[in-house]
Design a protein that fits this description.
Arc Repressor Mutant, subunit A, 2 domains, 9 helices, about 70% helix, about 0% strand
C-alpha cells in the first residue's frame, strides 16, 4: 500500500456536515498512523504521538479512538477498504477479457509488494496485531479475506467452472504467494543466471497455472 496515495472513498449519499467532519478527522488520524509505521516504527505509534503529529489534544484523538487497540483495529479495516477500492477502480477500467484482467490484477499485486513502503507498512502492522489483547489473529485473517475476495474476482472470470470452495483455495494460494514474496522479494533474483526469467515472470506464470488448473 503506497502510503503517499490519497485514500479513495466513494459515496453518492449526502453526509451531514458533522458526520463528514468526523469521518475526515478519523481519516486524518489513520493516515498519520500509516505515516508513523512507514517512516518510524510501531513503537512510535502511541496516542500522544498521533495527537502531536496532528497538533491535537490527546482527548481529541481519544474521542474517535478511545484506545490504541481501537486505532489498530480501525487501521486494518481502513487498509482493507483502500485495497478493495483500488481493485474496484483497476478492474472498472480494465478490458473485458478475462486473461488481461487477471494479469492486470497480478501485476498490481506485484507492483505493490515491490514497493518498500508497502513492505515496511505490513511488517509493522503484523507486529502491531500481535500486541492486541484479543483477536489479533482474527483481525489479520479478516483483512486477508478481503485480499482473497479481490483475487477471486479475476480467477472466477478466468476459470468460471471452479466451485466456490476450490475458487477460495486458488485465490488463497495466490494471495499467500504474494504475501510471502513481500518478505523475500528483494533477494529472489540475486543469484539468477543471465537469460533466466525474473521472479516476477515466474510468479505470473505460477499464478496463472493455479488459476487455470481444473
Amino acid at each position: 500500500m503506497n502510503a503517499s496515495k490519497k485514500q479513495p472513498t466513494k459515496s453518492k449519499v449526502s453526509t451531514p456536515a458533522k458526520t463528514r467532519k468526523g469521518a475526515e478527522r478519523k481519516k486524518q488520524i489513520l493516515d498519520v498512523c500509516i505515516d508513523i509505521l512507514v517512516n518510524k516504527d510501531a513503537s512510535q505509534l502511541t496516542m500522544r504521538n498521533i495527537a502531536s503529529e496532528l497538533d491535537l489534544h490527546l482527548s481529541n484523538v481519544q474521542y474517535y479512538f478511545p484506545t490504541r487497540d481501537d486505532i489498530i483495529k480501525a487501521l486494518v479495516e481502513y487498509i482493507a477498504q483502500f485495497y478493495t477500492q483500488e481493485v474496484d477502480d483497476l478492474l472498472e477500467s480494465a478490458p473485458s477479457e478475462p486473461l488481461p484482467r487477471f494479469f492486470i490484477m497480478i501485476d498490481y499485486l506485484l507492483e505493490d509488494i515491490r514497493n518498500p513502503r508497502t513492505r515496511r507498512l505490513f511488517l509493522q502492522l503484523w507486529g502491531l496485531l500481535g500486541t492486541l489483547e484479543t483477536d489479533g489473529d482474527k483481525i489479520l485473517n479478516r483483512m486477508y479475506l478481503v485480499d482473497i475476495a479481490n483475487i477471486s474476482r479475476v480467477v472466477a472470470e478466468l476459470n468460471p467452472l471452479l466451485t466456490k470452495g476450490v475458487l477460495q483455495q486458488r485465490a488463497t494460494l495466490i494471495a499467500a504467494i504474494m504475501e510471502g514474496m513481500m518478505l523475500m522479494y528483494e533477494d529472489a533474483d540475486t543469484e539468477l543466471e543471465e537469460g533466466k526469467e525474473s521472479i516476477e515472470m515466474v510468479l505470473r506464470k505460477q499464478a496463472l497455472r493455479i488459476a487455470l488448473d481444473p
